[in-house]
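Final report, results section. Input specification for complex C-07:
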Amino acid sequence: MTPHPKAVLILTWGNPSRGDDALGPLCHDKLTAQKLKNVEILTDFQLQIEHCTDLENRKLVIFVDASVSAKTPFEFSKISALKDHSYNTHAVSPQALMAICETVNSSTLPECWLMEIRGYQFGLGKPLSTPAAANLEAAQQAIEDFIENKIPE
Amino acid sequence: MNLETAENPQKLKRIAIEPVTRVEGHGKVTLLQDENNQIKQARLHIAEFRGFEKFIQGRPYWELPVLVQRLCGICPVSHHLAAAKATDMLVGCEQLTPTAEKIRRLMHYGQTLQSHALHFFHLCSPDLLFGYDDDVRHRNIVGVIEDNPEIAKQGVLLRKYGQEVIRLTAGKRVHGTGAIPGGVNKSLNREEIAYLEKDISQILQWSQGAVELIKQIIEQQPDYHQSFASIESNMLSITGRNGELDIYDGDLKATDANGELIFNHVAATQYNDYLAEGIKNWSYMKFPFIKSIGAENGWYRVGPLARINNCEFINTPLAEEQRKLFRAFSPGKPVHSVLAYHWARLIELLYCAEAIEKLIQDPDIQGSELVNKGQMQATGIGILEAPRGTLFHHYEINDEGIVEKANLIVSTTNNNQAMNESIRQVAVQYLDGNELTEPLLNQVEVAIRAYDPCLSCATHAMGKMPLEIELVDIKGNTRNRLFKNSNGDFTRQPI
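Structure output:
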């Protein structure tokens, strides 16, 4: 197994044109600007099955999405592969993606965390809400702190 | 029997399937049953795209190919390319450079490949491999992974390959900017081509395997596949100028249920002369129809089934061989079976794999002439065949280049009446007179899924995927509730 040159993956998703659904992509933009070492940051509209190939040979993966039900400002938790049958649409849950990953990839599953940032409005053409923007700041800082403690220089 | 609108609906039991699962976005099916469990009304409701047209107004035309990708997280490339084609017209580009056209085609074949792979392997294979009445806790992608890991893996990697084609041609993984008014902003370099060449043989092999798999599934139950939710309809698609299958460019063609021509070689710019959109007071989504036939009988189907029926040939050898076998399934007539959508879709998967193989060997995709322009126009119309069917983008701009009017007819809207007709067939075939159960209700969803509808856009924040089926008696009292939990289990909650 060849380790991925960037041991940490931050995978964000959401639709930038749907109000607070943009929390994932905006978190991507903010973290990319920080030029974090050994960290690859990706964004997409939705979490999809083929993202399991992005998890391959990583040490740490952080999923980032907007949430309508997380506590304010965010919930950050370690997650495990779960055959949760959440695959009701084209979008897949991070836990189910990990389960798919175990079958498809040849490498060991990385340690995975889920950052759910609280959002409030998701209408097409809506801007990011003020409270969601504050939650985003807090989540970004938490991710940076977490990575700094997790990955030694 | 007309199941669109029941008489005295207030006296009937109402069952709602909401949301319809394993399709994109949120849809709802409502069924009305009388006291003998006879179905009296069946309707599919969809929260649709109409707000997007307003969203686009007031924006400069050159933003369109990028902006419209945000309409849908599932097929952003379709909107990207349809808008680009419309803006070609706005900037007076009558002919793309060979490089621009081939790069756009490559992007489109890549997205169609990935879309069809996802739909078949991950959304529909659970029904097709295990049967509609398999335990709901097993009848899903996780069940496929457990029982058929190789099939699941092929689905993932086929989709990944298509996404990589999109990334290289559009410049980015998402929000690509590859297609611009009058052309493209990049071609491929040798390194990128070598990257795509590396896996194309495997992709072709898996695509052939997928067609063989669907044929095996059909051969096991040919009568079921012929008759399930079967409706006869008109078919609409674009075809190439020589009658060939062409999903990127061509003219509009419509055929009737017997395969006879209704119209052919109709330019995209004339679509308004041949098609109209009807409305019904119970649906937010419009009901397009062929003007010359009228609203009642002029509805049609689009997508893989219509395309493979309407084209006279496919210009890639393996897919053409499969097209002939497909047409032989219904000698002398178009193939109307709803489940044949899957078969047609996989023939297109193979077609896209072959077309990609051919294009990545074409020196034009490394060319440097990327853009053509001419005299600005006020109207731009772009039509292409999205994975789910014919997609129309129509814009009117003012002298400052600002969009004043937009009209989008998306694939799923084109199939609106057809999906409603299909669920009514299921209602008559399987539900009439029966106590409703989850496997029976899944039959309704199986019919809808065959069309691969894209019911919404890309908002899927966590915690928003409930499924609730409610049974209401003739007095309007809720008698039973069926919940689908996030772990896939169903629980029945007596009232």
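Confidence is low (pLDDT under 50) at residues 456-467, 484-488 of chain B. Chain B has 15 helices and 17 strands. This concludes the modelling results for the funded period.
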